[in-house]
Amino acid sequence: MLSKDRSLEDSGLRYLPNLNQEKKNTSPNQEIFPLTATVNQQDHLEVGGCDIEVLIEQFGSPLYVLDESTLRTACRAYKESFEKYYSGESLVIFASKAWSCTTICTIINSEGLGFDVVSGGELFTTLKAGVTPEKIYFHGNNKSVEELEYAVESGCKIIVDNWLELENLTKITQNSNNKPVEILLRLTPGIECHTHEYIQTGHIDSKFGFDPTQIEEVFKFVSQQKGLSCIGLHAHIGSQIFELQPHLDLPEVLAKWLLTAKEYGLPIKTINVGGGLGIRYIESDDPPSIEEWVRTVATSVETACKKHGLELPQLIAEPGRSLIGSACVTAYQVGGSKIVPGIRNYISVNGGMSDNPRPITYESLYSCVVANKMSEPCTEKITVAGKHCESGDVVIKDATLPKTEPNDILVVAATGAYNYSMASNYNRIGRPAAVLVNQGEANLFIERETYQNLLERDRIPERLVNSVN
Ligand code: LLP
Predict the structure, then answer these.
(1) Relative to the CA of 323, which ligand 1 atom is closest?
(2) In the listed set 300, 319, 338, which residue is the last one of a domain according to the structure?
(3) Among 15, 197, 251, 270, which one is least packed by beta carbons within 10 Å?
(4) 25-35 confidence digits (pLDDT tens)
């Protein structure tokens, strides 16, 4: 989990000797590196059959390297597990906030998953990738009127979060002759979990969803709106969760709400249990596998429905991190170094908090390797610093690594979730390129931002231009 300290073994290096051994039968979310990671004859790290050093020669650095096979394996693990453990209908939707771009949407769409979007921009991206609107669910605690209109027009489903949204949607739909807009209601389940407080959402003191005390009022209001059809209930507990207990508890809470919803005649056929399954960033992390998570969720929904005499609803889960997190690595080049005698040795890389803001935001821990020195002994304890003007811009504190030199390639694992999507241009640094690797082929799917790109939206007011001597 997101603990502050980590031991030397946690550097991920202990993991490396395993890379070329036969893989254990684990789930992508339990592996630190992508499933295809291996060490080649040049002693270099390879992902998706591509040598990371060669990728950097071709595409530059920093570089996000996304392994298609790991991503597809995770999609299939979710789908197949639901088919195996849930007797009703199910749908897995990708929480696209983890990494929203057209290529990733295209791959995930081709695996038959749906999508969770949280903004007009994410909706636009998903639609541009050719996803059918029926499989898109629009979330967010402060959707603008324009976003709601866009969602209604596109035909996606809307997960309503609060009263203002309900009122705005009522206004948008009341004079329409179209069929009612399908909505789900997001409710705060009052379930605590152990994760960083910034990424907990299910506890009562949360900005998301209707408070449970308002449920009946909400159900009554919705049941009176001709333009709205409430087809489901939603709850999400939090993110990077390793415990299964909260997911065992949630269906019981949802089932009780389903019973109340029935009293108001709502045509509910779906429950959405959110996402939240964690991934392994460092070796001591021990998340349940995708299959274990799905089994827990599916069987507890079945148990709760049986107990309350409810028909099995369509069951939706919306994972983000556990679908894409372990599929990507970020490759940097090493620059300068600094020894603070008796205190710490630093090396700097050519990226940092602008391409991965998670360490500075959540004190998240990562594993790394030197991709061009894979079998060299790890004799050094080194802190990997980013290049931004901020002391807290540290990618990994006290990593165990071989001796490094400038231009060595440092690869950080498990950077697929919430890295590119939270990347910034801090210090006017362009966002890195991203390549998709698969069976030795590498395709650029996001271009590197250039200096020119950084200026594209700058405008100098005319009067200032004229005042320049
Ligand atoms: N559903 C809802 C309503 C959510 O809010 C989230 C994540 C998910 C699904 C997907 O959760 P996942 O399966 O990825 O855990 N930026 C933070 C994570 C924020 C999560 C926001 N909501 C991070 O970098 O750790």
Answers:
(1) 13
(2) 319
(3) 197
(4) 789 999 999 99
